[in-house]
Design a protein that fits this description.
By secondary structure, the protein is mainly beta. Helix content is about 10%, strand content about 35%. It has one domain: Beta Complex (Beta-clip-like). The strands form 4 sheets. Strands 1-2-10-7 form a 4-stranded mixed sheet, with no helix packed on it.
Length: about 130
C-alpha cells in the first residue's frame, strides 16, 4: 500500500474533520489509498453505533470500516475525487490546500440517507446511498 504523505487531516468547513491536499493533483492521479483490512460481517455492521456507520462503505461486496485518513474524506455534490478499487482518484484538478471530497452515493449502502452539508451550488441537500 502506498503511503498517504501528500495529504493531511484537519478541520473542515464541510463537517468536522476533512482531508486536505499538501500538493497539486491532476485528474486521473491517485490522491489516497484506503486501508482495506477492516472488513465487517453483516452482524458486526448491524451492531455498530449509528455515529460509527458513517465510516462504513461497501467495498467489493463487503462492509469496509474506513480508517484514517480516508474516513475523513467528506462528501460533496461537486466532488474532486471518485472511489476506485480502494483508492480515491482525482476527477478534477486539486490544488495544495484544497479539501479532498468524494460523492458518497456510490459507496453508501442502498437506502441509507443523510443530510448533505457540502454547500456547493449544485448541492441536493441530502445524500442517498446507491451501493448494493
Amino acid at each position: 500500500m502506498l503511503p498517504n504523505t501528500d495529504i493531511e487531516v484537519r478541520k473542515s468547513r464541510i463537517q468536522g474533520r476533512g482531508v486536505f491536499a499538501l500538493r497539486d493533483f491532476t485528474p486521473g492521479e491517485t490522491v489516497l489509498v484506503w486501508d482495506t483490512s477492516y472488513i465487517l460481517t453483516d452482524d458486526e455492521y448491524a451492531r455498530l453505533p449509528e455515529d460509527q456507520r458513517h465510516f462504513v462503505v461497501r467495498f467489493k461486496g463487503e462492509w469496509l470500516y474506513m480508517q484514517e485518513p480516508a474516513r475523513y474524506v467528506n462528501h460533496s455534490c461537486e466532488a474532486n475525487t471518485v472511489a476506485r478499487d480502494g483508492t480515491d482518484v482525482a476527477v478534477a484538478p486539486i490544488h495544495a490546500g484544497d479539501e479532498i471530497t468524494s460523492d458518497y452515493r456510490s459507496e453508501m449502502p442502498s437506502g441509507e440517507r443523510m443530510k448533505c452539508l457540502c454547500g456547493t451550488k449544485s448541492c441536493t441537500g441530502y445524500i442517498e446511498g446507491a451501493a448494493v
